[in-house]
Design goal:
alpha+beta; four-stranded antiparallel β-sheet; 12 helices; binds flavin-adenine dinucleotide
C-alpha cells in the first residue's frame, strides 16, 4: 500500500542543528528537502528509514547570492526560484533553462537543486549545466567542509560521494570568463513532464580573436549511470575555429563516448542519435554565443 511507514520526524531550523543530527543519527536518517524524490521512494517502499530530517525550513541553506566572483546557490533553493531568477539568466542561462525543463510547475515549486544532485539520477536536469558552468559542490559535516566538481559528486545511479554525516550546503558558480558561453539541451519523448532521454550541456571559451577555441567542455546525462564528461570533444576543438566538418566530428565523438541503455523512455540507438544531434546543435550555439560574449 502507498502509505508511509513510521519514522521519527526532525525539523531543525539551523544548519548547525542539521549537522548535529547528521553526526548523531545520519546513518539511520534520510534528509527531506522538497520531497519530490524522497517521498515517492518512501511511499513505494523503495527505501526505509528510522528518521526523516526536514531541511526545507533552514533559511541558511536557501537562496541565490551574488558575490564578487560569481554566484552561490543554497542547496535548498527551489528549482522554480532558479528558473525565475532574472539575475541568473544573463550569465547562467544554461542552468536557468535546465531548471525550466524539470518536471511540472508544481514539482519545480517544491524540488530543490541540492535534492536534484543528491538524488543522483543519471537523468537529473541540473548536474550537466552545473558542470558546464564550472560549479563547485560544497559538502559539509560536523567534521568540516569539502568541495567537489559536480561530475565527481555522482558515482552511479542513485549513488554519490556523500558520507552518512554529510550534506550538500551550496553550489558556487564562478563568473563566466570572457568570450565564453554555456548551452543546455534535453530531449524526452514528449514535451511536458518527461524525464530526459538525453540531456547535455556545452561550454565554449574563445581566444581574444573571438574565433579560436581556447577551451571546451561537453557533459551528457541519461546516457550512462552517471553524467559523462567528454574527453574527445575538447581535444577535437581546442586551438581550432568551428566549421561544419568539425561540428560533424563533435557529434561523432560524443556518440562514441555515450553508453546508453534501452528502457521505457528510449532505445539505446535513439539515445545515441540524440547525443549526436544535441552535441552538434549545442556546440554551435555555444560557439556563436561565445563570439558575442
Ligand atoms: C512528477 C515528477 C517529475 C519529475 N521530473 C523531473 C525532471 O524532469 N528532471 C529531473 O531532474 N528530476 C525530475 N523529478 C525528480 C525530482 O523532482 C528532482 O530530482 C528534485 O530536484 C529533487 O529535489 P527535492 O528537493 O524534491 O529532493 P528530495 O526528494 O527532498 O530528496 C532527494 C534525495 O536527496 C537527498 N537530499 C536532499 N537535499 C539534500 C542535501 N542538501 N544534501 C544531501 N542530500 C540531500 C534526500 O535525502 C534524498 O535522498 C521529477 C519528480 C516528479 C515527482
Amino acid at each position: 500500500m502507498n502509505i508511509l511507514s513510521n519514522f521519527q520526524y526532525h525539523a531543525p531550523k539551523t544548519k548547525a542543528e542539521v549537522l548535529d543530527l547528521l553526526a548523531d543519527i545520519g546513518d539511520k536518517s534520510k534528509m527531506l528537502a522538497g520531497g519530490t524524490d524522497l517521498v515517492i521512494m518512501l511511499k513505494e517502499k523503495m527505501i526505509q528509514t528510522e528518521n526523516v530530517i526536514n531541511i526545507a525550513d533552514v533559511k541558511e541553506l536557501s537562496g541565490i547570492k551574488f558575490t564578487d566572483n560569481g554566484v552561490e546557490i543554497g542547496a535548498c533553493t527551489t528549482i522554480s526560484e532558479i528558473e525565475n531568477s532574472k539575475e541568473l539568466v544573463e550569465k547562467y542561462g544554461a542552468l536557468v533553462y535546465a531548471a525550466s525543463q524539470l518536471g511540472s510547475y508544481q514539482v519545480r515549486t517544491m524540488a530543490t537543486i541540492g535534492g536534484n544532485i543528491s538524488h543522483s539520477s543519471p537523468c537529473g536536469e541540473t548536474p550537466a549545466p552545473l558542470s558546464a558552468l564550472n560549479a563547485t559542490v560544497v559538502i559539509e559535516s560536523k567534521r568540516g567542509e569539502r568541495t567537489v566538481k559536480p561530475e565527481d559528486f555522482i558515482l552511479g545511479n542513485r549513488q554519490n560521494i556523500l558520507e552518512k554525516d554529510e550534506m550538500v550546503t551550496k553550489f558556487i558558480i564562478p563568473e563566466p570568463v570572457a568570450h565564453s558561453a554555456a548551452t543546455y539541451g534535453n530531449i524526452g519523448l514528449r514535451n511536458a513532464m518527461e524525464i530526459d532521454a538525453v540531456n547535455m550541456a556545452v561550454n565554449i571559451e574563445l581566444e581574444d580573436d573571438k574565433k579560436t577555441i581556447k577551451s571546451a567542455k561537453l557533459i551528457m546525462g541519461s546516457v550512462a549511470p552517471k553524467p559523462i564528461v567528454s574527453e574527445g570533444v575538447p581535444s577535437l576543438l581546442v586551438g581550432k575555429e568551428l566549421n561544419d566538418e568539425l561540428i560533424e566530428k563533435v557529434g561523432e565523438a560524443a556518440m562514441s563516448e555515450a553508453t546508453p541503455i534501452s528502457d521505457v523512455r528510449a532505445s539505446a540507438e535513439y539515445r545515441k542519435d540524440v547525443v549526436g544531434a544535441l552535441a552538434r546543435r549545442l556546440t554551435k550555439e555555444a560557439y556563436n554565443k561565445a563570439m558575442e560574449a
